[in-house]
Specification:
The chain is an alpha/beta fold. The protein is built from 7 helices and 12 strands. It has helices spanning 25-38, 63-71, 93-100, 148-151, 155-162, 172-180, 206-218, and strands at 15-21, 43-47, 51-52, 76-77, 80-82, 87-89, 105-109, 118-119, 134-140, 152-153, 193-199, 226-228. A 7-stranded parallel β-sheet has the order 4-2-7-1-9-11-12. The chain has a 3-stranded antiparallel β-sheet with strand order 3-6-5, with no helix packed on it. Strands 8-10 form a two-stranded parallel ribbon. Strand 5 (80-82) and strand 6 (87-89) form a beta hairpin. The mean pLDDT is 95.
Length: 233
Amino acid sequence: MPVCPFDFVNDGKKHTICLVGGGGKTTVMYELAAMWAACGRKVLVLTSTHILRPVDGSFAADAAAVQDLWQQGRYAVVGTPELSTGKLTAPTQDLYEALKLQADVILCEADGSRHHLCKVPAEYEPVLLPDSDMVLAVAGMDALGNSLQQACQRPQLAAELLGCSAEKIIDVQMLAALLLSEQGARQNVGARAYYIVLNKCDLLKAAQQEEMLRLLVGAGMDEHRIWLRERGE
């Protein structure tokens, strides 16, 4: 079970949270879903783009199946099956509207990364839920030491944003800039609360962790809205 440090985890309030970025976004989403479900909260998981259909029995084809999973103390994943890929797309609007009134927490994967460790969104990304109140941006710290071309989805956009070539090796300053930019991970966030999950921090040296925190906090991020997440949490 993850040890998530964010203030909203235990505030007892209803939240609709969108996850963006890369490098472990889906893992973080399901860990948070399991954590809240274990606490007795009704958790709804979905996507506004595409996610793999889960094979653990958490997919619910309709509202009745969602209620059944909630009664079992589990989270429920909803979406529209895409027969050509085996993935799920967004649920129908009618189903979402009915369920969002009953859910305590809604988690939405609002961005695809094709397994890249970080990303810069295209103009049409991310697809944030209009009623979401929070955005969690995820980045894999194993991006450091790799080039933008290797580790970043849409490397050319990242290169243009950072003013460098796509072959530039990613350092902490570059990754921090991608997470802080409104043309990067903060795109379309607006007035929503913004949190950052730095994934696989156990791969970093202590000095690198300190430098990342210094850069993010120095740019105005609240330190309590940054999760230095290690593998296996």
